[in-house]
Specification:
The protein contains four helices and 30 strands. By secondary structure, the protein is mainly beta. Strands 3-4-2-1-7-8-9-6-5 form a nine-stranded mixed sheet, with no helix packed on it.
Length: about 425
């Protein structure tokens, strides 16, 4: 982050005494924002005040009497800058439950200083990044939040790792299981139905639901499914990376584009003849591998790999049933290793990885229990799972061309064999 200092603020620094206070802005992945100041009273900071992401952090910063920040450690070396804050969990809406269920995981933050007597003269940016470790003290109402700077990315491995399994997330750019999805571009005209991803892969796609031109800076994406993100004159709706955008009338479709019917029918339709769709939605042929003519477009039917549903009965916090989560073409464990995202209920916004799926009863079992009791009627989006093997990539997704593993590299047992040890 550029630490340029506005001229009025430099004048303030040159005085014999200053009246600076430190402010911190948080934005969780579910879009909820928090603003705190170490001042002993709430501090309105007029806007706009744009951070390095182009996000406006201005607003009323609440006096955080329960916050005890450490000194900021920052150096010109490649070491990771860090800061810890001890927080009283009941303070300003920060709860132990939210920390426990992961709502604060990887939240963005910005820290800056501002003259509390006149915040309008400018701010001094100190640090930005994402939250690191969140720990809670047993038997206490306090927790410690680690704030890590962007330099932590320098510790992450780069390059390809050689393994038999595919290292790519299902639905990611390299996977292309529902076609190529291009990253967001600044100052670009987007049409209704255009689908993009963020510049940093966040296991989400965004579909243009209000046409317009994107902004100068990439927006802060709302990661909640079905939520919207405003980007200058464009409005994006958040989709599962395994769900095609809804079909649109009189639209040019490229080869391999995937869409769903306006009324979701457990199918997805892949463009196998490029062209322009008709003025009204076709009657979809839901038989797998069948085709549907639509203007000059031809669609081929595939089994949907991202489904909507709701709980119809509940066993416990690891198991529930959905009698509608069945289809003649499904098999047991179709959703194994997949991700289920709750849309409503006490677990709304939380994700659970699927351990097993039983077709006959529509039973879903998680690897670990959800934080809150599942209620009948709680809705969700469930994505099919991938065990990252070449056989699954070929047989389940018909996507072997994009398999990213190295299946033909000899395994460790072959590499350490000695002469005469191999069976004839």
């Amino acid at each position: 982050m550029t630490k340029s200092v506005p001229a009025p603020l430099r004048t303030h620094f040159d005085q014999e005494t200053t009246a600076l206070t430190t402010c911190i802005y948080f934005r969780r992945q579910d879009g909820v924002e928090f603003r705190f100041t170490e001042l002993d009273q709430n501090l309105p900071v007029p806007g706009p005040k744009l951070d390095a992401r182009g996000r406006d952090v201005s607003g009323t910063f609440l006096s955080a009497g329960g916050q005890t920040p450490s000194s900021i450690s920052s150096a010109s070396t490649l070491s990771v800058d860090n800061l810890e804050i001890v927080t009283v969990l009941s303070n300003a809406g920060i709860t132990e439950v939210d920390m426990y269920v992961g709502r604060w995981d990887y939240a963005d933050y910005d820290i800056f200083q501002v003259p509390h007597e006149d915040p309008s003269i400018g701010i001094m940016w100190l640090m930005s990044g994402k939250l690191g470790e969140v720990s809670m003290s047993r038997g206490s109402d306090t927790g410690t939040v680690e704030l890590r700077s962007k330099s932590v990315q320098l510790q992450e491995p780069f390059g390809r790792l050689v393994s038999h399994e595919c290292p790519t997330d299902l639905g990611a750019l390299d996977c292309a299981v529902i076609g190529l999805i291009y990253p967001w571009v600044t100052l670009t005209a987007y049409a209704l139905g255009d689908r993009i991803r963020s510049s940093v892969w966040e296991r989400r796609h965004y579909v243009c639901t209000t046409a317009g031109t994107s902004g100068v800076n990439e927006p802060v994406w709302n990661l909640a499914l079905d939520a919207t993100t405003t980007d200058a004159t464009v409005v994006w709706t958040t989709y599962s990376p395994l769900r095609g955008a809804q079909w649109l009338a009189t639209t040019v479709y490229a080869l391999n584009t995937v869409v769903t019917a306006t009324a979701f029918d457990k199918r997805q339709y892949r463009c196998t003849t490029a062209g322009t769709s008709s003025g009204s939605e076709p009657t979809w042929n839901t038989t797998l591998a069948a085709t549907t003519a639509d203007g000059s477009v031809v669609w081929t039917t595939e089994l949907g790999i991202s489904w909507d549903g709701s709980a119809t009965s509940v066993t416990d916090q690891t198991t529930f049933e959905d009698t509608a989560l069945t289809d003649a073409t499904l098999v047991d464990d179709w959703f194994k290793y997949g991700m289920l995202t709750w849309l409503t209920g006490d677990n709304a916004g939380l994700e659970s990885e699927v351990k097993t799926y039983t077709k006959a009863t529509g039973t879903v079992v998680f690897w670990s229990p959800v934080p809150f009791a599942i209620q009948i009627g709680d809705t969700y989006v469930i994505e099919t799972g991938c065990d990252k093997s070449p056989i699954t990539c070929k047989d389940k997704f018909n996507n072997k061309l994009n398999f990213q593993g190295f299946e033909h590299v000899p395994g460790r047992d072959v590499m350490i064999q000695t002469p005469g040890s191999k069976a004839s």
